[in-house]
Design a protein that fits this description.
37% of the residues lie in helices and 26% in strands. It is built from 11 helices and 18 strands. It has helices at residues 2-26, 33-43, 45-57, 66-78, 145-161, 187-193, 252-270, 309-329, 349-362, 381-384, 421-437; strands at 82-87, 91-97, 100-110, 129-132, 135-138, 167-175, 204-214, 218-219, 223-226, 228-237, 241-242, 278-286, 293-294, 297-306, 333-340, 345-347, 367-368, 389-397. The strands form 5 sheets. An 8-stranded mixed β-sheet has the order 1-2-6-3-7-18-8-17, sandwiched between helices. A 4-stranded antiparallel β-sheet has the order 12-14-10-15, with helices on one face.
Length: 440
C-alpha cells in the first residue's frame, strides 16, 4: 500500500513538472518595445509605398499643399490625434499624448514638391503642372518629400498602436514650403513663428532626409551637418541697342557672362577652404527677348553655401567687389544683394551621441555616425535654433545599384526605393521611445 502511494505521488509530480515545462516552452517571451516597433513597421510596408506613390503622383508646390495636408490631417485624426490644420498656411500638426508621463519630442517631415518636370518612367509618375515665377512648370517630388511624409505617417501609426506604452508626448510636424519661395519665409521658420514648439513645450526635435545612399542605411553627423544658405541676386544694367551695332550700347549679356566666370574664382582661388567648405552657384540668368536686340538688363540669381560665419561675410564682400568692378570696366553697373536663407543645420553633439544607438539599431543597411558634411541647406535648422535637434540621412538607392551613379536630389530622375521607408519609420519610433527612456 505504501509503495503504491509513493508511485502515485511520483507520477503526479512528474506530470506536474512536464506540464510546467510545456507551459514555459509554449509561452512566447515578451517582446521588447524595439521588437514591437520593428514588427509594426514591417507590417506597414505596403501602406508606406501606397502613401508615397499617391503623394508622388499629386505633388504640390510650397504653400499650395492643400490636398496633401488634407490627407495627412485625415490620417492623424483617424489615429485619434489632436490635429491642428492650416498652421503656417498649409501645415499640419498632430499631437499624440502617450499613456505614461514623460518628455515632449517632435518629429518633422516636409510636404512641398519642386518645379521639376519628372523624367522617371514609373506608374505613379507626376504629370502635374503649375505656375512658378510667372511660368508654367512641371511639378514633382524630386527631393523625396513624398517619402518623408509617408515615413512620418507610418511612425504616427506605429506609435499610436502602442500609445499606452509611450512615455510623454509626441508632436508630429508636417511642414509646408521647405524649399522656400522668393522673398517669403520658409515653412520651417513660419512654423516656429507660430509656436509649434511651444504648446506643448518641445524638448527635442528629430528629422530625416532621403539621399542616394545605399537603401536602408542611416547616416548622422554631430555639429554642423548641412550648410547655411544665402540667395544671391545681381542686376547688370547696360545700354540697349541694335544687335548689329553693339558699339552704340553696353552689352549686359557679355558683362553678366564675365561676372559669372569671375565669381568662380572666389571659392576656387580666394576663399580659405581649409577653414570650412563653401559653394557659390549661379542658377538663373535672364535677359533679352529678341535675337537682334542687346537688352538694357540681365538678372543673375544664385546661392551661397557656407558653414563659417566669417567666411560667409568674406565671400559676400568679394562677390560685391568682383561684380561691381567687372561691370564698371565695361561701362555697366551691377547691383548685388544677398537675401539670408537657412542657417547651418547643427546637430546638438550631446543629443546626437545620446541617440546614436537608436539610429544604429534602426538601420537595415550601413550605419555611419560620422557622415560627410552636406552643402545642401535645410530649414530644419529653424527648429534647432529653438531646441536641440538631430537631423539624419536615410539611404534610398536600391540594393544592386551604385549610389555613386544614382540621380541626385532635385534631378528629374531622382528615384526612391520604397523598401527603405520602413527603416525611416523604425528610426523615428526608436528615437521617441529611447529619448524618453534615457531622460534624466
Amino acid at each position: 500500500m505504501r509503495h503504491t502511494a509513493i508511485v502515485v505521488l511520483l507520477a503526479a509530480g512528474l506530470a506536474c513538472s512536464v506540464a510546467i515545462g510545456a507551459s514555459a516552452q509554449g509561452a512566447a517571451p515578451a517582446l521588447s518595445i524595439h521588437d514591437r516597433i520593428a514588427q509594426a513597421s514591417a507590417r506597414l510596408e505596403p501602406k508606406l509605398a501606397a502613401w508615397r506613390h499617391d503623394f508622388h503622383q499629386h505633388p504640390e508646390l510650397g504653400y499650395q499643399e492643400v490636398r496633401t495636408a488634407g490627407i495627412v490631417a485625415g490620417h492623424l485624426r483617424g489615429l485619434g490625434f489632436e490635429v491642428r490644420a492650416n498652421v503656417a498656411r498649409t501645415g499640419v500638426v498632430g499631437i499624440l499624448r502617450g499613456g505614461k508621463p514623460g518628455p515632449v519630442v517632435a518629429l518633422r517631415a516636409d510636404m512641398d514638391a519642386l518645379p521639376v518636370t519628372e523624367e522617371l518612367d514609373v506608374p505613379y509618375k507626376s504629370t502635374v503642372k503649375a505656375q512658378f515665377n510667372g511660368r508654367e512648370v512641371g511639378v514633382s517630388h524630386a527631393c523625396g518629400h513624398d517619402a518623408h511624409m509617408a515615413i512620418l505617417m507610418g511612425a504616427a501609426e506605429v506609435l499610436a498602436g502602442m500609445k499606452k506604452d509611450v512615455a510623454g508626448t509626441v508632436v508630429f510636424l508636417f511642414q509646408p514650403a521647405e524649399e522656400g519661395l522668393a522673398d517669403e519665409k520658409s515653412g520651417g521658420e513660419l512654423m516656429v513663428d507660430q509656436g509649434v514648439l511651444d504648446d506643448p513645450k518641445v524638448e527635442a526635435v528629430f528629422g530625416l532626409h532621403v539621399f542616394p545612399f545605399e537603401s536602408g542605411s542611416l547616416l548622422v553627423r554631430a555639429a554642423g551637418a548641412m550648410a547655411g544658405s544665402d540667395t544671391l541676386r545681381i542686376v547688370v544694367r547696360g545700354r540697349q541697342t541694335h544687335g548689329a551695332m553693339p558699339w552704340d550700347g553696353v552689352d549686359p549679356i557679355v558683362v553678366a557672362s564675365q561676372i559669372v566666370l569671375g565669381l568662380q574664382t572666389i571659392v576656387s582661388r580666394q576663399a580659405n577652404l581649409s577653414t570650412a567648405p563653401a559653394v557659390l552657384t549661379i542658377g538663373i540668368i535672364q535677359g533679352g527677348n529678341r535675337t537682334n536686340i542687346i537688352p538694357d538688363e540681365v538678372r543673375l540669381e544664385g546661392t551661397l553655401r557656407t558653414f563659417d560665419q566669417a567666411m560667409r561675410k568674406d565671400i559676400q564682400e568679394r562677390v560685391h567687389r568682383t561684380a561691381t568692378f567687372i561691370a564698371q570696366s565695361a561701362g555697366a553697373t551691377a547691383n548685388v544683394t544677398f537675401v539670408p536663407g537657412n542657417v547651418v543645420t547643427f546637430n546638438d553633439p550631446a543629443l546626437t551621441a545620446r541617440m546614436t544607438p537608436s539610429l544604429r539599431r534602426a538601420a537595415s543597411g550601413t550605419f555611419e555616425p560620422n557622415a560627410p558634411v552636406s552643402m545642401a541647406s535645410e530649414d530644419f535648422s529653424q527648429y534647432q535654433l529653438k531646441v536641440p535637434g538631430v537631423y539624419f540621412f536615410l539611404g534610398i538607392t536600391a540594393k544592386g545599384s551604385d549610389p555613386r551613379k544614382a540621380a541626385p536630389n532635385h534631378s528629374p530622375l531622382f528615384c526612391v526605393d520604397d523598401g527603405a521607408l520602413v527603416t525611416g519609420v523604425r528610426a523615428f519610433a526608436n528615437l521617441v521611445v529611447d529619448y524618453a527612456a534615457t531622460a534624466k
